[in-house]
# Entry
Amino acid sequence: MTMEHLYDDSARERLVPEPPKRVDAPVRMAFERDRARVVHAASSRRLAAKTQVMGPQADDFVRNRLTHSLEVAQVARDLARALGCHPDIVETAALAHDLGHPPFGHNGERVLAEQSQECGGFEGNAQTLRLLTRLEAKTFDATGRSVGLNLTRATLDACTKYPWPRASAQPPHGVHGDGTPRVVVKFGVYDDDREVFDWMRAGARGTAQCLEAQVMDLADDVAYSVHDVEDGVVADRVDLTRLDRSALWETVREWYLPGMPDDRLDRVLNDLQAQDSWPRTPYAHGRRDLAALKNLTSDLIGRFCGSVQQATFDSGPGPFVRYRGTLVVPEQTRLEIAVLKGIAAHYVMSADDRVAMMARQRELLAELVEAMWQRGPESLDAPFAQDWEDAEDDNGRRRVVIDQVASLTDASAVSRHAAVVTAR
# Structure
């Protein structure tokens, strides 16, 4: 059986049926079309100007949400191919996984969640589903309503990291990959997007992630755990040859592994440092240093994905697609990823200059939401101004303002604040 035959007609179904393409058009499978639609989406381009850990303009080298998404997509595609699930589905989910992030990443998400309590809250993953199924204009249904990119059921499901509504979300705990505390409950759909969500989840098992979403989720975890350390090394914030284990383990316990004893963490770090590619001398910014650092990141990604692949194969016969299998992450791999996250958290994300900057970002975004709410459609881009006019009540109009602000990049949020708030 080929990979294509592991996905049935239901997996390929779109909310709005589409006619066949022109006979002289290139032949592409359904999931290839999904990938192309996400690549060409306006919200994908905006990721280039959205915060990852350090702001997009902090340095030419550091990652933004777009470069991060491309790296997650590469890790996800390779792992999907190894496991036997469809690489186009998983790659599309990886490319889309951060589309719903507002300006300033999880820091901005916190503000929009506070500003949208009365209209259903805000969550970056729920916003991603809203973008894919409503806000990105490509296809309309028979009533004239936008259904967004009109992706297949399998691809949309793979994009859904938290397949449940806000009412079913657990209380937040821990921190995000960018170091901000989790103060926003995690969920994947707003109440007014339930119709498409319920269609998408037809045949799903309760609140379980499909296998492709699990691969995307792991690839995200692997990519930022490795690459945030890489960025920290190049920015001279992390010296992998001189780690203060005592202070580092306090951060790891506070942020990721409560109660984990020093001796266990010591063994995990010792195992990582035993890799031939782990640096033995401080980073000096030369080409050999950069090449060595790239070899380290490659080895770490291979180490993590290889262990997950083997553990998943050992768990059962497969095939590992949709709801026919579960991704298995060994405990040692989970701890190694957490230690890498802890290194970035301790040396990069807790820095005083970053904490002060984040406080100003939250203030700016809250002021912008309130100003746009007060000024209404005159302060909104044309598509959102039309949404405002079509809204049935204040909750609907408030959601439009949240959608507008969430669509902005870091730089455009600052410039829009100057135009809408400062210039008043």
User: Anything to note?
Assistant: Residues 212-349 form one domain. The mean pLDDT is 91. The two ends are 64 Å apart (CA to CA).
